[in-house]
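Teaching assistant's notes for section 4

Start the section by putting this record on the projector. Ask students to predict, before seeing the second block, whether tRNA (guanine-N(7)-)-methyltransferase will look compact or extended. Collect guesses on the board.
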Amino acid sequence: MSKGKLQKFAEMETFDNVFQYPYSVIENIPFEMKGHWHEQYFHNNNPIVLELGCGKGEYTVGLAKLFPDVNFIGVDIKGARMHTGAKQALAEKLDNVAFLRTNIEVIDRFFSQNEVQEIWLTFSDPQMKNPRKRLSSTFFMERYRRFLADNGTIHIKTDSNFLFTYTTHMVNRNNLPILFRTEDLYHTDGFDEQTRTILSIQTYYEAQWIERGLNIRYMKFSLPHNGELTEPDIEIPLDDYRSYKRNKRSGLQKHE
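Reveal the predicted structure now:
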């Protein structure tokens, strides 16, 4: 690990808005704030919104500034990136922001039933070879159900045609209510001013994709508690710019 990363990790240990529980730790130390984020950290009853795979926390911090009456928690396992957003939130005295460094595979160990109202998936790794690792897969949807309010909202913003297409099929296969969907966010009309302001927040990686001329895709849908979730069994072309000349197929059964 580089000296810079070590310094960031050491500094984050002093941040009171950061909780570090990677998988190796949570196995042995229970997270006592589960179900008590409102009273023990935020000290209010405002809604809680998660950004999963938050990276540098641009969305977590940006949303927190726009909505001071909502609580935001950025989640990622890469602490050196998270350090940027956590430090900014402290410097700007954003009391409605927290960061959780952990593996998203165990996210349900940190929140109780109905404790979260919305989830943002911003530029998640599409995980083209492993459906179970996709943050919009039914594997993760089942975990989200354990703490997301009934019919809570899930937002996905991505440059990946593969991930967006997969998620669309997943949503349609399970009859999840689509609240909005566009394949070209910055050339779509009809947003109200507040929504456009929210969606104009750009992550570090998003700025790169836009500069390369890639479309930014966005969708939001509801996740009901009821109903069995089934994975879509389809074939989706891989993202050319990510696949590095590998076989450009998902390996699943071809969709007729």
